[in-house]
Design goal:
Elements: E1 2-5, H1 7-14, H2 22-29, E2 32-36, H3 37-49, H4 58-67, E3 71-73, H5 77-82, H6 98-110, E4 113-116, E5 129-131
Parallel strand pairs: 1-2, 1-4, 2-3, 4-5
Length: 136
């Protein structure tokens, strides 16, 4: 199975966070896992603006991802073109995060499962989105 990790799940994985359920950790460890160039971009922006809130630099994220055997998924034109195919209920809560939408489009276009801890992403009617409930 090819899995794309959203930024939060990838950070939890790299930091060995207890928020990540063991089943999800096992799934990640036993799958072909990708991280998106969009996640690297998101981390770079957030780490520069608020380094205390974003616990890892983009360089460290890339290093950890590569050491974990993850593959980088570049952002390609087919991914940006797929953004207009994403569907969600008009009554769903507003979702303004462009990085999240790009990750969904990448997973949908490339036949991957996107693991996310963002409830708003589960409002998209896309089979590729799998919501992972944070472990408390």
């Amino acid at each position: 199975m090819n899995i794309l990790l959203d930024t939060q799940i990838a950070l939890w994985f790299h930091m060995k966070s207890k928020a990540l359920p063991k089943e999800t950790m096992t799934l990640i460890e036993n799958s072909t896992v990708f991280y998106s160039a969009a996640s690297t971009w998101e981390i770079a922006i957030k780490h520069q603006i608020r380094p205390l809130v974003m616990p890892m630099s983009e360089e460290d994220f890339i290093t950890f991802s590569n050491k974990a055997g993850m593959k980088e998924l570049p952002v390609l034109s087919r991914h940006t073109l797929a953004l207009k195919t994403l569907r969600r209920e008009s009554s769903a809560p507003e979702h303004k995060d462009p990085f999240d939408r790009l990750l969904i489009a990448q997973a949908k276009t490339d036949g991957m499962v996107l693991l996310t801890a963002d409830e708003k992403m589960s409002n998209y009617h896309e089979k590729c989105v799998v919501y992972v409930k944070k472990k408390v």
